[in-house]
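User: For a benchmark we're assembling, each entry needs the component sequences followed by a predicted structure for the full assembly. Here are entry 17's components. Please fill in the structure.
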Amino acid sequence: MNNKFLYDANSDILFIAHNVKHIGWVTIKEQSIQRIIYLSKVLYSFTHDDENIFDYYHFSKTLHGPYAVIIRDSISFLKSNKFLNFIEGSIEAVKDSPITLDSTKSGWLQAIILILGKYGENRIFGFTINDPLYKEAVDTNSQKELDASSPENTTIQVLNDFKIAFEETLNTTAQISKEEYLDLYFEYVFSQIISN
Amino acid sequence: MRKIYLPELINLKINNFTLYPNGMNFSYDFIKGVNLVLGGNGMGKTTFVNIIKYSIIGHYKKQFNHTRTYKDRSIEKRILYPMDYFLNRMDDTVLTDGDPTVEITFALNGTIFTVTRRLDVIQIINITVDKKIINGLIISQSKFEELQEERKTEYLQFKYEQLIEKYSGLNFDDLIFFVNEVLFFGENHNTILWNDGEKPDNVQNELFNKYFNSPELDRERQESQRQAKYYDSISRHRSEDIRAIKKVLDRVEKNKITSNSKDDPFKQIIVCKDELEKTEFKIKSLKEITLNNSSKASISQNRINTLSIKVSDLEQEINKAEAKLKSKIWEKLHPDYDLFIENIKNNHLCPMCNTEDTKLYERVINDSVHCFSCGSLFDKTEDELLNSNHKNLVDNYKSISNQIQEQQKSLKLIDIENDSHDKEIRTLESKKRSLIQKIRTLELQVSNKNENNNNKDLQAFYEEIKGLESDKLKYQELSRLALNKAESISREIEQQIISNTSKFSALFSEYAENFLGVKCSLTFDKLTSGNRRFYPVIDGKTRIYEEELSESQRFFIDHSFRMSILSFFYSTPTFYIVETPDSSLDISYEENAANVFIRFLQSPNSLIITSNLNNSSFVNHIIDNKKDVSVSLVRLLDIAKKSTIQNTNTTLIEMYNSIKHKVSEKKDEQ
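Assistant: Structure for entry 17:
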């Protein structure tokens, strides 16, 4: 058990449990936390060339979507330490994390949560479940973790296909932050999906 | 997906072949079911199945051989077995009144082929297709292979190949491949599921490339692969030439006592380039090991996730069971007691001070009847059923938890190994950079050097090396380009394979689970430095290497794989030959093994099995099958040499006769 990773996950999860309140969710299910972090990890690779800041999450495909054991372990830690309350199968944050997230990570998680709020859980999660990386892992009966950071990752390839067309709709990408970029990007992707 | 038709065996006639002196006009009708070839050592079981193979594809061992070069010219030809293979098996004390021949009758999508070949000289002597005689010149296979393409057309062998292509949808080389590599599980027991290119042929890769696309695209892919191999071999030859010249230069330098050869830039360039090549090779090997390790780590991570879900589910069940067991003390138990236990189990931490505590974890895992904190015994119900249910759940929980811990240990080891490789790679990369820099400087020095240098006499050698090096790089690049092209075609095909993996895997499961009795599936993945391919997943574990399974498990998993291929692409009946499948089976697997084959015969197919009756119960399981699959006997013991039969142990003869009797009884019943 690597405690550093556990404490990193603890901070991420507490941050998520607190911040989903901004989009009107009082409680959150473990499954939703798994999906939010999975989405954060995959999309981080899409907009960043550097090492993935979520690389201590190792996801597998399951019947209920992506799953990383460290999230389960962290939730059990946080419940036992009374940072989280467990109400009818859902989780509610009751205490703030003693560890503050660095701004890159908090900004990123915040952006993902806002996108969730904007487009709705089902649509975004539908996007996660139907994403090519996930789908291919299911189709090939893959026994490996879902590799969100590999350049061969099919999700990133699909996102990149959209990216070229999307960037043509922007005047310049230099002036906007990565989070804004992602927000605009999704606006574009969903407008394309809806219009098609 | 390609529509292809494989041969459906109808009849085999062997004439004047003196290995079987009591069957000089031997005829055998293949059945859709099990065709048993039984006999002791030396009776000609292997020869018999080789005759079947020979009668269909001739004496070809490999459909293609390449990269034999003479002055950089590639010589491409098929590989043949020794021409006197059958001749050497004949008994020259027996007189015959005709040539030894084999005649096979088979169908290709309803068209009936009858092909007659000589067994003493390797040649086709007669072909009829739907009873119509095909005319052509007769030639031995070895001579035919030496002919130039345009001169082959008038021969019967060429016409046969054309007809095969017309009616099977496969070209003749493909048929050689299928019969040798897929439809025949020979005595050498080579598996195709694990063959990933380290062996001479990458059978899986070839197989799926052939099935899943148009013949044109496959030809293009094969051609690119051949080119890549061919250019690679030329570039290797250049490397060898450079080494040879370098050796000569070394000798010359040794003899020149006065020369300050160490400072000679020409010499230094060669030394540096040699060193660079070695360094690049080391980096490449280390990267391959790291990649393989990462795949293993990824599989372990996934397994931990999967097992953890099982553990979480079990934990919930245990909690429910314990709630019933501890019902009496429920009122005084801390409301978060279960949360604490869960935290201990998942994180190995003390829930009070959050310090890592492995002993506490072990105590909690092994003992749920005492309080984890003070050790007091819980009052428990005496209900035996509840207790035994709880015990089963806890045992299961412990076993899965142990598996998780084992996976975590192996992950740790991989991490340590990969860290040390990463460091080594970084050092080597830096060495590589400085060598490249040094070579550049030296080359600049050489180009500026006055012509009247004291190495004038050796200049020609250095020039030759330079030329060879540029050639080497050129061919390396050509090889890389050809390989990229082949891989890009393969990737197109991969998409088709991916979309069919679950269906294919389900078929495999049916066969493999019949044998092993545990959950089996196939995963299509890239787990080593080789291509993406199918790997078996047995009881949740991915078996990357065949050595991870026992001999008999390995063979039957491979049979399962081959039979699922044949079932997946089933269009018309075909055949599958297995030599001595019972040789490595222990008693507990015999019935399962028989069931694997019986499952294959649920669609009309001919299975040809040889057995030396080392143990007759496998054969008996086959005959006694409940699915009413027909069984027929190739009576080798009746046609083999008298002396061989006389030397045969009486027990074996009795076993043979009893099976013969049983088979004929079964036939009568049907």
